[in-house]
Predict the 3D structure of the following.
Amino acid sequence: MVQQLARRHGCEMLRYAINGLLATAVHFAVLTVNLEVLHFPSAGLANLCAALAGITVSFLGNRYVVFGHRAEPLLGQALKFSGLYGLIALVHGGVLMVWTDWLGLDYRQGFVLATALQISLSYLGNKLLVFKK
C-alpha cells in the first residue's frame, strides 16, 4: 500500500517534504529567537507565535508548488488552511507545553516530536480538505 501510494503521489510527496522542511526551518528559527533572544517565558507561547510564520510559508508553498490547486479563490483556501493549521498549531503548542513547560524536557526534542505529528496531520488535511481537486 505504501509503495502504491508513493508511485501515485511520489512527486507530490517530495514537493510536500521540501516545502515542509522550509516551513519547519522558518518555524524553528522564529521559535529559537523567541526563546533565546526575546526570552519568552513559555515555550508553548513562543511556539504558537513561531507557528504563524511557518504556517504562512507552508500555505504559499502548498498552494503554488505542492498541490498546484489554484482554481479555488485564494481567500477560500486560506480560510480552510488557516482553520486546519490553527488546530495543528494548538496540538503542536500543547505537545511542546507539556514536554517542556510541564515535564522540564528539552524544547528541541519536543519540537521534533510535535513536528512529526504535524507532518502527518497537515499532509492528510491539505490533500483531503484544503487542496482537493
